[in-house]
Each structure stands twice: as structure tokens, then as C-alpha cells.
Write a structure and sequence with these properties.
The complex is a heterotrimer of chains A (about 120), B (about 625) and C (about 500).
Chain A: H1 2-26, H2 30-52, H3 75-106
Chain B: H1 2-23, H2 25-45, E1 51-59, E2 62-68, H3 70-93, H4 100-119, H5 123-141, H6 147-178, H7 183-189, H8 195-213, H9 221-228, H10 231-241, H11 244-264, E3 266-267, E4 270-271, H12 272-292, H13 297-318, H14 321-352, H15 369-383, H16 389-403, H17 407-432, H18 448-466, H19 469-481, E5 488-490, E6 493-496, E7 499-502, H20 503-523, H21 555-561, H22 568-588, H23 595-616
Antiparallel strand pairs in B: 1-2, 3-4, 5-6, 6-7
Helix pairs in contact in B: 1-2, 1-4, 2-3, 2-4, 3-4, 3-10, 3-14, 3-18, 4-5, 5-6, 6-8, 6-9, 7-11, 8-11, 9-10, 9-13, 10-14, 12-13, 12-17, 13-14, 13-16, 13-17, 14-15, 14-16, 14-18, 14-19, 15-17, 15-18, 16-18
Chain C: H1 2-9, H2 14-33, H3 41-62, E1 65-69, E2 78-82, H4 84-107, H5 113-132, H6 136-154, H7 160-191, H8 196-202, H9 208-226, H10 234-241, H11 244-269, H12 276-295, H13 300-321, H14 324-355, H15 366-369, H16 371-385, H17 392-405, H18 409-437, H19 452-470, H20 473-487, H21 489-497
Helix pairs in contact in C: 1-3, 2-3, 2-5, 3-4, 4-5, 4-11, 4-14, 4-19, 4-20, 5-6, 5-11, 6-7, 6-11, 7-9, 7-10, 8-21, 9-11, 10-11, 10-13, 11-13, 11-14, 12-13, 12-18, 13-14, 13-18, 14-16, 14-17, 14-19, 14-20, 16-18, 16-19
Classes of the chains: A mainly alpha (about 120), B mainly alpha (about 625), C mainly alpha (about 500).
Chain lengths: ~120, ~625, ~500
């Protein structure tokens, strides 16, 4: 049990990453692929958080008395994730708007049929 | 200073010509001629000088060396000479084409870069000028437009790039080995290198020189390119540009490596120079017989360029004093008579509206007498008749082969000459002799600016034929500077233990015989003159069309040799290109257009990297 | 020289990132005042950047400038490292940015111009940020700025091809950047720092498998943008469907910056010298695939895009030889590719505009219709093929020298293959040149020049190509110090960490 307890976030993160990659590889629908990208990014974000997380840790505020530095959660990954989330949202918005335009041009979102640019 | 000035005048003149053309075509034309003339004068002034000069603003830290000696001068004078004649010839010939600024610019630019390769003394500059020459030539081969010309251009540039890249590997390898690319320093340092390494370098360099020299089996660009280029440029191509390959061989084989090393390059019974000799022999025979089959005036000349290259390499690669002299002299002679012949072919084209098909010409002798004389003399030189320059050089080469106990090579050379006689006669006969077709009745002799180069070259053919001592003296100096023994040269030829040649005596003899024959004919009855339309028909209706035989000229012979003379080398190259094209087309299918595949590539790449690490633990 | 270094003391490399970024967001504001001046903003921004970068060169050659942001000392702060490589790249970016923005003054006439200029500024800001930053996460952020703005710019025309390429580019790009971020996370988990010099300092203290996984992830992630085969499937689509000015930037700057990130990661952070042999083969493979795909293209921009892949392969090959000549040659080839391919795309842009099609066969007789543009195209093509006296020749010369100076038979064979790739490249470029000049066009032979702004920018490209090609010593000094920065990672670490 303690293995699961210690590594649950990592397992979750890599689970999400693999689900995301699987969706991108297997699904033909553009929207689903975009969802896959989103899941992939979420997995990576979760992983980043997990890197800095300490079980039952607290916020790294040194002015509070009685807290040791080794109980503090590393704040850097959280800052990173905030940035990464913002970037992810930008990419997502971009992707969805492109999907709308693509649908107008092709009348379908099936990626197997959107193959005009090739070779 | 003069050497830099020469380069500056050459390149600057080319650019200036282009811009003057924007102002006025007349100005451009006269400036182009003046520029070419100035180059001839400047080069002539450099006669006999041996200068080496290092300029320290070189390429990537390597100094830029300028150098002239007899060998460079010898090639330089042919370049500027033919350049000048070709420009003069172009004035009228090309008058009505478009983009004349471009034409003159490129011609002068090619001449300038050829001069550059000749007078630079380090291999980097040599390569830079060489490449400039390659691409500017490519820009001019396709000048006329049309599918054939485009194909010729692309064929030329691809082969030439393959060659020059091989040379680049050789040059850079030399640089990493010896840390210098100055020819004079290299020549000293390379003596200590291992034979295997030298062989590698030699093969790399030879690839480039064989391609540009169009020796079998890398000759396939030449017939197309020479036939498709405009005639004044064909004569530059054929007379000097192709022979830059010979210069390269001199430079590398004799100047840098030297006789010592060359003689050591033997592996069993195969020696390096021997391989060159055989390449030369095959080239001679193959080209002479293929030229027989051509029906296009310029294609015949193009193939003969290929073939004559074989004689040169036979002489030069034989690496004896006589052979060297013969090969070198043949370069000069070839330059003169092939330039002349291309001018003649161009003159015919000019007056007949671009006809090169030998089957539809004939009887132009009366209409264009000077052109005829030029063509006849050129062909005589090509064949090697006594009293023409070709005779002397071929004599030297045959002599070398016989003295060297190489009967098969000598036989190949004779066979080549025999083929040359046949196609030479075909050239003369089909254009000038026989019956004049109706449509050419009003044809006139070409204008003066086109006649002048023909006349000059005709005179030169005889001059060097009767007084071969003039160029042979220079050639002797070249030979001595490359480490050969000195020859005993007189004005009329060569005196040596194995045989003496004195063309002045021959000239005198032939003159006397000629006068006697003339007197006999004079004394005899006058031959009746018969109109060409007043012939055997005996009152019956005479066919209006042509009825002298020019079609299927050597038919039985052709039937005999054609099956063996398919240009299978060319076919092979074309197959390879097709194959590459198909391969490229199938490689393209990697990019399927389906985005999941692309993501799959990314994942696979990742997996592959991890696999590599797990398997070989590179990191 | 004295005055120059005096001047450069007052110049801060941060300006290189800040000014274009600020101007990018100022564009809409300025747009309220006057719509007409918007298009001059990128010109101003990159002129400024170019001047700053050039001013910085003398002092950077002596000592890399490390800018600490927020007052912390490295490794705790976000820092910019303006070493020779950084300045070399930012000068190159500013130069290409300036010339292409001059070109775009007239070229970009349709669509939402305001957004074009914002995105253009952002793209190049991102690129400058990537090459200057000393912080691995910052690298990711700037990289994303670059990527997102290029996704948007590829779709700028809004046509079928543009949208399709853009979405494909986006999918691959975001998978790549997720992998990159994952790698960064793993590194942070092990070393607790994001500073590149700091990680590099500690890298040998960790066990090899735990280093290997983040390295592979980062290489793959960055490789997508750097267009290493087989991660480059987005490139031909994106480069061929973007507006030509953007293609020039994508080809000339974006993939180069991606490549910069790859070599930075490989050389400086991970010191992966054993792994480079793999990249030698990868480079040759990329080159061959790129050239072979380009060989029978009928679409001019697709052909140029595939040729970019080939060039990237050559550059990867050069860097992976990993001796001084190789790295110098790699940088040189980078510059020559930026100039040559930029020029080619720009020239092709107006030729496409005139002929109305990207099909090469419609360029018949272009030599008469647009004489100058055709001439510029020819110069670019010759330079890319590596013919003297253009800039492509010295760079190719250096690469061949690097390969041969290793003295190994393997490298001699590989350079032979590489040069065969050059022959293929020559074949398709020469074919296009022939079509432009010698194929007799049956179309309208009216003479119509490209607009003056386009001609000016292309002309400057040509001048640079010729001048550096004839006299490569102009830039060898900075190239050499860039190469030594890349090869001596200890010096880099020391100069950042103090």
C-alpha cells in the first residue's frame, strides 16, 4: 500500500500522459485529438506538481514559527505549472479556433480525410 | 601588379560590359572587343615571366597566391585568344538574339574565371575559380532555350558538380594533411606522403578532370552541351574550357606530384599512367566511330572534341619527353582547329537559318568560299595532314607510342585517325560539295567580323604546321620545368635520335611537287566546264530536288558498327537518374499527410532513442 | 574599437527581449493612433535589436554577459546569458527580422495586418529569448511563445492549406513541448534547479539512466521544432502554406533556434559526447530524406521547405562531428542557410504573386518578367547549393574540412554521402533556375518588378551573401568564439555561476 501511497501522483501523471498520447495516436476526430493534447498536458502538469510535493507539507512561508524547511512544499514547480497551464490554454484556444476554420473548409473533422498537404 | 590587374580587367570588364549594354548596344559590343583585346595584349606581355605572388587577404585564413609560368601562360594565351576571336565572331552571329548583355557578360565572365584558374597558385582559389567557371558555363549552355538545350545544361552542371565535389574532398584532404594549399609548398611536402594516400587524392582529382575533359566513360555531357550551345560559345567550350581538365592534370600530376611519384604508382602490372593511357585509347576509338554516325554538323565536332582529348592524354600520360611535347602541342593545335571548325559550322548555321542537319546541306563551296577553306583546313588539321599543325603533334604522339613499345595503343590511335578521316570527309562533303539545294541559291558569304576569326585561325593552322618550332620551344620550356628532358627543337621541328622531323623540308618538297603538278596541268588540255544541271540526264527531265548522295553516307559501315556503338554509358547514367527519381518519389511517401502517423514518428523516435541507450548504453 | 566597447557598457542584453515584446503589445495601442505606422513597428524594433546586438559583440567576445533578473545570483534567479552564441543568434534573428519586415511592408496587404505584426514581433521575441536565456524553464516558455505565434502565422492566410498545416503543426508541436516539459520536470526533480549552468555542473553526479530519460525527452521535444527526421513532418506543410515572409522566418530562424536548443541541451547541459555519433547518422539521414523529397516537387515552396530539412541535416551533421571545425562550420552553415533560404523564400514570394501559382512550371519566362527577383533567386539557389563565391561555399568548405580532419574512414564516406545530397540539391535548384531563365514562356511577357521595399530587402540579403562569401574572415572571429563556448562547457558554467 505504501508504494501506491508514495507514488500515486506519478502513476496518475504517467497514466494521463499515456492516455493522452494514446488518444492522439488512435483517434481520428480532430476534437478528440485536441482533448488528447489537453489530457497529455494535464498529465505533465500533474507530474511537475508531484515532483515538488511533500506529503502533508505546508506552504513555504518562513515567517511562520515552528515549521522546518524540509516540510515545506517546493514552490517552484507550482509556479512552473501555473505558467504551463496558461500556455496550455493558449494552445487549446488556438487549436479549437483552427478546428472551427478547418471544419468550414473541409466539412469534416476526420483527420484521415484531411490529407491535402502531403508528400 | 600585372597579374592582379589581369584578373581585375577580366572580371571588371565582364561586369562593365553588362552595364554598358544597358546604355547602348554598340558601346557594349565595342567595349567587349576592346576588353578581350586588352586581355590578349596583357597576357602576351607576360610571356616568359615566372612570378609568384602571395596576397594576404585570402579565404578563411589561407593566402591567395597568384602565379604565372610557362605552363600557365601557354593555357592563358589560348583562353584569351579564343575568347577574343569568339567575341569578334559573336558580334554579327548573335546580333538578333535577345539578352545580349547577358550573353557578353557570361562569355567574358567564363573567360575571366578560366584565367583565374590558370593564374592562381593555390588550390582553394583554383577551386573557387573552377566552380565559378562551372556555373557560368551552365548559365550559357542553355542560353538558346528549348528542351534539348535545357537538358544539355542540366546534364553538364550535374556531372561537373559531381566532379568538382570529388575535387573538393581531395583539396580539403590535402589541406588537413599538410596544412597548406599553396601549390609550390604542396609540391615539396607531398613527396613524403604514403602512396595509398596519394592514389586516393589522385583519384579524387582525376574524377573532376576526366569529367571536364570528357574522357570515356564520363564524356556524356559533352556532345549535348557542345551541340546545343551557340556556336561562338561552342568553340570556347571545345577549344579551351574542356582543356582546363588537361591543365588540371598537368597541375596535379606533374606540378604537384612530379614524375618521381607518378612512376612509383604501380600496383602489379597496373600503373596509374597506364590506366590513363587506356582511357585515352578507348576515348579515341569510341569517339571517332560515334562521330561517324552523327548527322549534325556540331555533334560531329563535339564528338571529335571527345576523341582528340584522347590523343592528348595518351601523349601526356605516357610521361616521356616526346609524349609530353606531343600531348601539349596537341592541346594548342586542337584549340586552333576545333575553334575554327565550330566557327565554320556556326557560319553555315548563320546563313542557312540554323541548319545543322548534314543531310539537307550541300554545294556551298561556291557560295561561301572562305568558310569552305576554313572548314577544309580545319578538317585537314584535325586529320593530321602534313603541313597542318595537327600533323606535327600527332607525329610526336605516334612516335612516342611506337618508341614505347605499345602497339595496341598505337593501333587505337591510328584507328582513331582513320575514323577522323571518314567523318572529316563527311563534314566537308555534305556541307560544301555536291549539289546546292534550290533554297540556298541566294546564300552569301558571312560578314567580315565572322570571316576574320576563320581567316586568322586558318593561317595559324598552317603557320604552326610549317613552323612548329615556335610553339614547340615554349612546350620544351614547360617540359623542362616539369622535370622532363630537354628536346632539340628547331624552327622546323624536332631533331632526336629516333627520328627527325623537319616540316620546312616537307613544305619545300610539297611546294616543288605542287608547282610541277600545276605546270603539268597547265600544259595539258583545259577541262570542259559543265553546269551542275547539265549532267547525265541526257535530255530527260532533271529532278528538281537534291540528288547527290549525302543521306546514309557511310551506310554499310554504319550498319556494321552501330550495334556496338550505342552509347551504353549514357543510357546507364540515364537509367540511374530514373532510378533515383523513383526512389525519391517513394521516399516522399513517408510524409503521409495523416497527422497520427506523424505523432507516431515522434513516439517511435523516443522509443528508439531509449532502445539505443538500453542496448548499447551510449550514455 | 574603444568607443564601441564604451558604448556597449551601457547596453543591456535584456533590451533584446524586452523591446520587441513591449512593442508587440504596443501595436494595438499605436493602431488607435494610426493604422499606417503599424507596419513600421517591426522594422524599428529589429533595427534597434540589430544595433544592440552588434554593439554587444565586442564586449561579449571578451567575456559573456550574465544578466541577473530580480537581483538574485545564479542559480536561483532567472538569468540571461549573452555569450557569443547568444549574441550571434540574436544578431542573426534581428537581421533576418529586419530584412523580412522591410519586405513585408508591401508584401502583407491582406488579412488582419495588425495581428500579423503582433505575432511577427512575438515570434522573434520568443526566438531571441530562447537563445539568450540561461534558464531551462524560461527556454520552454520562450519556445512556446515562438511556437504559438508560428502556429497562428502559418494559418494567417486562412485558406484551406494554411489551416490544415497549422493544425497539424500544432498537434505535433504540442506533443513535442509536452515531452520537453516532462524532461524539464524530471531534471528539476533530480537537481532541484532550473539553471542550465547549474544542471550542467551537477550532471555527472547523477546515474546515467536517470539522466538519459530527461535527455531523450528533451531532445525529442526540441527536435520537433528543430525539424530533425523523423520529427519534421510538420515542416513542409507549414513552410509551404504560410505567407512567404513567414516561410522565410520559419525556415531561416525558427528551425535554427530549435536546433540551437538541441545543441545547447546536448553539448552544454548533458555533455553527451558519446551520443553524438548517433546524431551524425541522424544528420545524414535527415539530409538525404530532405533532399530526396525535394527532388521531384512541383510546388516551389514545398521544394524550398524540403531543402530546409536537408540543410538542417547538414547542420546537425556538422555539429555532431564535435570538433572545432565542425561546430564552427555548423554555425557558419546556419548563417548561410538563414541568408540563402530567407532570400529564396522572399524571391519566390513575389514570383508566386506574379505568376499566381506555386507550380514551378508557371515560372516560365520569369527571368524577363521579373529580372531582378529572378537574379536574386538564382543567387540564393547557388548559395544554398554551395557554389563559390557565395556564402554557402565557405560553410560547406568548413564542414568538409571538419569531417576530413577527423581522419576516420567513416567520416570520409559520410561526407561523400553528404556531398551526394548536395548533388541532388543542385539538380533541383538548377532545374528551377533553368525554368526561370531559359524555358520559353508563352504567358504574358510584361515586365513588372517587385515593389521597391521587397527589392531592397532582397538586395541586402544578396550583398551579405556575396560579401561574406568572398571574404568569410568577416565573421570567423565570432564563429570561433561561439564554437569554443559550445565545446568548453566548463567555461560556460564558470562564467554563469561565477
Amino acid at each position: 500500500m505504501s508504494f501506491l501511497h508514495n507514488y500515486i501522483y506519478y502513476i496518475g501523471a504517467f497514466g494521463l500522459i499515456f492516455i493522452g498520447l494514446f488518444i492522439i495516436l488512435v483517434k481520428h476526430n480532430l476534437i478528440k485529438v485536441i482533448i488528447g493534447i489537453s489530457i497529455l498536458e494535464t498529465g505533465v502538469n500533474l507530474f511537475l506538481i508531484a515532483v515538488g510535493y511533500i506529503s502533508k507539507g505546508t506552504a513555504p512561508i518562513f515567517s511562520k514559527p515552528g515549521i522546518n524547511a524540509n516540510q515545506m512544499v517546493d514552490p517552484v514547480p507550482q509556479a512552473l505549472v501555473l505558467t504551463a497551464i496558461v500556455i496550455g490554454v493558449a494552445v487549446l484556444a488556438m487549436a479549437l479556433s483552427l478546428a472551427i476554420r478547418l471544419y468550414k473548409h473541409y466539412g469534416t473533422l476526420d483527420l484521415r480525410k484531411i490529407k491535402e498537404q502531403r508528400w | 601588379m600585372t597579374l592582379e590587374l589581369l584578373l581585375i580587367v577580366a572580371f571588371g570588364g565582364a561586369f562593365l560590359t553588362y552595364f554598358l549594354g544597358k546604355i547602348s548596344p554598340k558601346l557594349r559590343n565595342s567595349f567587349a572587343v576592346i576588353n578581350a583585346l586588352a586581355l590578349v595584349v596583357m597576357t602576351a606581355c607576360l610571356y616568359g615571366q615566372t612570378v609568384e605572388k602571395t596576397l594576404h587577404f585570402g579565404f578563411l585564413g589561407m593566402p591567395f597566391v597568384l602565379r604565372i609560368n610557362m605552363l600557365s601562360w601557354f593555357f592563358a594565351i589560348t583562353i584569351v585568344g579564343i575568347g577574343l576571336l569568339s567575341i569578334i565572331y559573336s558580334l554579327k552571329y548573335i546580333e538578333n538574339e535577345k539578352r545580349l548583355d547577358y550573353y557578353y557578360f557570361t562569355t567574358l565572365f567564363i573567360n575571366a574565371s578560366m584565367l583565374g584558374t590558370i593564374i592562381c597558385g593555390d588550390l582553394v582559389s583554383f577551386f573557387i575559380f573552377w566552380e565559378m567557371m562551372s556555373w557560368s558555363t551552365y548559365l550559357l549552355i542553355s542560353y538558346k532555350g528549348g528542351d534539348k538545350a535545357l537538358f544539355a545544361g542540366i546534364k553538364y552542371i550535374i556531372m561537373s558538380i559531381i566532379g568538382s565535389l570529388a575535387m573538393l574532398i581531395g583539396i580539403i584532404s590535402l589541406y588537413t594533411h599538410f596544412g597548406t594549399l599553396e601549390i609550390s609548398t604542396l609540391a615539396v611536402q607531398i613527396q613524403g606522403a604514403s602512396l595509398n594516400y596519394i592514389l586516393f587524392i589522385l583519384i579524387m582529382f582525376s574524377a573532376a578532370f576526366i569529367i571536364i575533359n570528357a574522357f570515356w566513360p564520363l564524356h556524356t555531357w559533352l556532345p549535348d552541351a557542345h551541340a546545343e550551345a551557340v556556336s561562338p560559345f561552342s568553340s570556347i567550350l571545345s577549344a579551351v574550357l574542356v582543356r582546363k581538365g588537361m591543365y588540371g592534370l598537368y597541375l596535379f600530376m606533374y606540378m604537384i606530384l612530379g614524375l618521381n611519384i607518378l612512376n612509383k604508382l604501380k600496383f602489379g602490372f597496373i600503373s596509374f599512367t597506364g590506366v590513363f593511357c587506356w582511357i585515352g585509347a578507348i576515348t579515341i576509338v569510341f569517339a571517332a566511330l560515334t562521330a561517324l554516325l552523327q548527322n549534325d554538323s556540331k555533334r560531329i565536332l563535339a564528338w571529335s572534341t571527345v576523341g582528340q582529348g584522347g590523343y592528348m592524354i595518351l601523349g601526356v600520360a605516357f610521361a616521356t619527353t616526346l609524349g609530353m611535347a606531343g600531348g601539349t602541342f596537341h592541346i594548342l593545335n586542337h584549340c586552333i582547329y576545333i575553334g575554327l571548325l565550330f566557327f565554320v559550322a556556326g557560319a553555315i548555321e548563320y546563313r542557312t537559318g540554323g541548319i545543322r542537319d548534314l543531310d539537307s546541306l550541300g554545294g556551298l563551296i561556291k557560295k561561301m568560299p572562305i568558310t569552305f577553306i576554313g572548314g577544309l583546313v580545319g578538317i585537314l588539321g584535325l586529320i593530321g595532314m602534313p603541313l597542318t599543325n595537327g600533323f606535327v603533334s600527332k607525329w610526336l604522339i605516334y612516335k612516342t607510342l611506337i618508341l614505347g613499345n605499345r602497339p595496341f595503343l598505337a593501333f587505337a590511335a591510328f584507328l582513331g585517325t582513320w575514323g577522323t578521316i571518314l567523318y572529316g570527309y563527311k563534314f566537308i562533303h555534305n556541307i560544301f560539295l555536291g549539289q546546292l539545294p534550290e533554297k540556298y541559291k541566294d546564300i552569301k558569304e558571312v560578314p567580315f567580323t565572322m570571316r576574320l576569326p576563320i581567316i586568322i585561325l586558318t593561317v595559324l593552322v598552317f603557320l604552326f604546321g610549317i613552323l612548329p618550332g615556335i610553339p614547340l620551344k615554349m612546350i620544351n620550356i614547360i617540359g623542362v620545368s616539369l622535370g622532363f628532358e630537354s628536346l632539340n627543337v628547331s624552327l622546323g621541328g624536332i631533331t632526336s635520335d629516333s627520328g627527325t622531323l623537319n616540316t620546312i623540308n616537307i613544305f619545300a618538297g610539297i611546294l616543288v611537287a605542287g608547282i610541277i603538278i600545276w605546270l603539268i596541268f597547265k600544259a595539258g588540255r583545259k577541262a570542259p566546264k559543265v553546269n551542275q544541271y547539265d549532267s547525265y540526264a541526257a535530255g530527260a527531265a532533271i529532278p528538281k530536288g537534291k540528288y547527290h548522295y549525302t543521306v546514309n553516307f557511310y551506310n554499310p559501315l554504319e550498319r556494321m558498327i552501330t550495334p556496338y556503338l550505342k552509347d551504353f554509358v549514357d543510357a546507364f547514367y540515364i537509367k540511374i537518374t530514373e532510378w533515383i527519381q523513383n526512389l525519391c518519389n517513394s521516399v516522399r511517401r513517408v510524409y503521409t499527410g495523416y497527422v497520427s502517423n506523424y505523432v507516431m514518428y515522434i513516439v517511435l523516435f523516443l522509443a528508439f532513442l531509449i532502445f539505443v541507450q538500453l542496448k548499447w548504453s551510449l550514455w | 574599437m574603444g568607443e564601441l566597447s564604451l558604448l556597449s557598457n551601457g547596453v543591456n542584453p535584456v533590451l533584446l527581449v524586452v523591446v520587441p515584446l513591449a512593442l508587440a503589445f504596443a501595436v494595438p495601442l499605436i493602431g488607435f493612433v494610426s493604422k499606417k505606422i503599424i507596419k513600421y513597428i517591426p522594422v524599428v524594433a529589429f533595427l534597434f535589436n540589430l544595433i544592440v546586438a552588434l554593439l554587444l559583440i565586442p564586449s561579449v567576445l571578451k567575456q559573456p554577459i550574465v544578466v541577473k533578473i530580480g537581483g538574485f545570483a545564479p542559480p536561483f534567479c532567472i538569468n540571461l546569458v549573452a555569450g557569443p552564441i547568444g549574441i550571434l543568434f540574436s544578431a542573426l534573428i534581428a537581421l533576418a527580422g529586419l530584412l523580412v519586415s522591410i519586405y513585408a511592408l508591401n508584401y502583407i496587404r491582406e488579412g488582419p495586418q495588425e495581428k500579423y505584426h503582433i505575432l511577427y514581433l512575438l515570434l522573434l521575441t520568443g526566438a531571441t529569448g530562447v537563445v539568450l536565456t540561461g534558464d531551462i524553464f524560461n527556454l520552454f516558455v520562450f519556445f512556446e511563445i515562438l511556437c504559438i505565434s508560428s502556429y497562428a502565422l502559418v494559418a494567417y492566410l486562412g485558406n484551406k492549406a494554411g489551416i490544415e498545416s497549422s493544425i497539424k503543426y500544432l498537434i505535433q508541436g504540442s506533443v513535442g513541448s509536452s515531452l520537453l516539459l516532462l524532461g524539464i520536470g524530471l531534471l528539476y526533480g533530480q537537481f532541484g534547479t532550473l539553471n542550465m549552468a547549474d544542471i550542467a555542473n551537477q550532471i555527472h553526479s547523477a546515474s546515467s539512466p536517470s539522466i538519459f530519460v530527461p535527455m531523450v525527452l528533451m531532445i525529442t521535444g526540441l527536435g520537433v521544432e528543430a525539424a530533425i527526421f523523423p520529427l519534421n513532418a510538420w515542416l513542409p506543410d507549414a513552410h509551404s502554406s504560410a505567407p512567404s515572409s513567414i516561410s522565410a522566418i520559419l525556415s531561416g530562424i525558427a528551425i535554427e533556434v530549435g536546433l540551437y536548443a538541441v545543441i545547447r541541451v546536448l553539448f552544454t547541459i548533458f555533455d553527451a559526447s558519446n551520443f553524438l555519433m548517433f546524431f551524425v547518422f541522424l544528420g545524414v539521414l535527415t539530409l538525404l530524406i530532405g533532399e530526396m523529397c525535394a527532388f521531384s516537387q512541383k510546388n516551389i515552396k514545398r521544394m524550398l521547405a524540403y531543402s530546409s530539412i536537408g540543410q538542417i541535416g547538414l547542420i546537425v551533421f556538422a555539429f555532431s562531428i564535435a570538433n572545432t571545425y565542425g561546430v564552427t562550420g555548423g554555425f557558419f552553415q546556419l548563417i548561410s542557410h538563414t541568408l540563402g533560404k530567407g532570400l529564396l523564400f522572399l524571391a519566390a514570394g513575389y514570383m508566386i504573386y506574379r505568376s499566381g501559382s506555386m507550380d514551378i512550371s508557371t515560372f516560365e519566362g520569369m527571368g524577363k518578367r521579373m529580372p531582378l527577383t529572378s537574379l536574386f533567386f538564382t543567387v540564393g539557389a547557388f548559395s544554398i547549393v554551395g557554389l563559390p563565391p557565395f556564402i554557402g561555399f565557405p560553410s560547406k568548405f568548413m564542414i568538409v574540412r571538419a569531417a576530413l580532419s577527423t581522419g576516420e574512414l567513416l567520416f570520409t564516406i559520410l561526407i561523400g554521402i553528404v556531398l551526394l545530397g548536395t548533388v541532388i540539391e543542385g539538380a533541383y535548384f538548377f532545374r528551377v533556375v533553368q525554368v526561370i531563365y531559359f524555358k520559353k514562356g508563352n504567358g504574358n511577357p510584361e515586365r513588372k518588378k517587385a515593389p521597391i521595399s521587397g527589392l531592397i530587402s532582397m538586395f541586402i540579403f544578396v550583398i551579405l551573401i556575396l560579401v561574406i562569401g568572398v571574404y568569410p574572415n568577416l565573421i570567423t572571429k565570432i564563429l570561433n568564439s561561439a564554437a569554443s563556448e559550445l565545446l568548453n562547457r566548463i567555461d560556460y558554467i564558470r562564467s554563469v555561476l561565477g
